[in-house]
Amino acid sequence: LGFAFGGWARNLDGFQNMRATPDGSWAIAWTGWVDGVSPAMFAVKLPKWPRKTSGNLGQFVPIPVPVAAQTGMAAARIRFGYAENGPPGSFYCTTRQEACTTSGTPFAFASESQSDTPCTSGCTVNIPAIPRRVVYYEIDGVDGSGNVMSRSQMQVDVPIEQLQGP
Predict the structure, then answer these.
(1) What pLDDT shows up at residue 98?
(2) Could you tell me the sign of the dihedral formed by the alpha carbons of 152, 158, 161, 166, in that order?
(3) I want to staple 137 with a disulfide (CB 3.0 to 4.6 A). Which of 15, 80, 130, 146 is the partner?
(4) Residues 6 or more apart in contact with residue 6 via CB below 8 angstroms
(5) Which residue(s) pair with 44 in the sheet?
(6) Cα–chain-centroid distance for residue 132?
(7) Whole-angstrom distance, CA of residue 103 vs CA of residue 148
(8) Closest alpha carbon to 107 in 64, 73, 77, 148
(9) pLDDT for 30-68, tens place per residue?
(10) So what's the pLDDT on residue 16?
(11) How far apart are CA 15 and CA 39, in angstroms?
(12) Higher pLDDT, 12 or 124
């Protein structure tokens, strides 16, 4: 858009550029030589600007995941991670090559002690997810001895931070 159809390296006076209208809905451009033929002025309709976010994209966004009650299940935890850090089924939530779980504050690595969510009558487990990144996860049902007794299929979600404004 910056050359307004004048082409790269066809800028004769060095001042071709676009100026947006005050409301940001249109841009006006003067081009010295459109296709090397003649000067012209263009008006370009601009797309709407993206909505403003609530602020800090470095804060976790909780993804509530409902877990149904199961016979013999005492607790639940979720293993989660991002494909940027390794294979999705490895559930690496950081560059540390170890699975992450919801059994910590805000999360725990699989080798650390786990503090699972009590879930004898069903529960909701929150994944501390990074906004705007695809998170892969599986739900683990845990028995009273801390052994995994059931595992869901891999699921995918994209946490969106709370938006503000029009």
Answers:
(1) 97
(2) negative
(3) 80
(4) 16, 31, 32, 33, 34, 35
(5) 27
(6) 1
(7) 13
(8) 77
(9) 776 676 677 778 888 888 876 665 556 778 989 999 999
(10) 63
(11) 13
(12) 124
**41 in helix, strand or coil?**
strand
DSSP 3-state of 88: helix
pLDDT band of residue 166 (cuts 50, 70, 90) is very low
Q: Give per-residue burial for 21-37: e unless 16+ CB within 10 Å, then b.
A: eeeeeebebbbbbbeee
E-strand stretches of 71-164:
75-81, 100-101, 108-109, 117-118, 123-129, 135-142, 148-151, 155-157
Three-state DSSP state, 52? coil
Compute CA distances 108 → 2, 11, 58, 128, 142, whole Å: 48, 57, 18, 11, 16
Cα gap 39→139, rounded to integer Å: 64
* Cα Rg of the chain, angstroms: 26
Give the whole-angstrom CA distance, residue 41 versus residue 5: 10
**Phi, psi (deg, nearest 5) at residue 165:** 85, 175
Which residues have a Cβ under 8 Å from the Cβ of 1 and sit 6 or more positions away? 18, 27, 29, 44
Taking alpha carbons only, the member of 92, 96, 74 closest to residue 83 is: 92
Q: Is the dihedral of CA 44, 49, 50, 56 positive or negative?
A: positive
